[in-house]
Amino acid sequence: MKKVYSLMVCFVGTLLFSSCLSLAPTTISRMASLDGYKYFYVTPTAERSSVTGGTYGSKGYVYGSTKSNSVNPADLIAGYMMNRGYVRVPEVKQQNAAQTMIINYGDGNSREGFWEERAVEVTIQILNGETNELICVCRADDKGNDEAKAITRAINKCLDEIFLARP
Asked: DSSP string of 131-159?
């Protein structure tokens, strides 16, 4: 009996710990300094939405609820940058291209775990507006049962790494 109990504890423990999604550390590669930039342009992105919820009930009574969240990564990045004092421009113009950063957003490598948990990886590139040379690139991921919130947290991790942890 003791052996069966031990095997059951090992099985349940393995199931619980193997189903957890692990997150890679935030990584950044800097090719040039961000000093001297005043303006930024964010490439447009589509809104990302997520819905969570379920159906509950008992004998004769069934009810449910859902919760919807959405995020537009370009708007989130723009808000972050404006809070830091940078000026958003609708396009890169030749007269201030040397002082303009182009910010690109991408996501990928979405993984699903146990109990509706998702991990989302985001990448942010910053380019020089005049030469289109790469200034820096950052990759971060986050997890949760709400994809929009995980994207928001991962973007903030990246931007904090780029702008708050600058050498």
From this structure: T--EEEEEEEEEEES-HHHHHHHHHHHHH
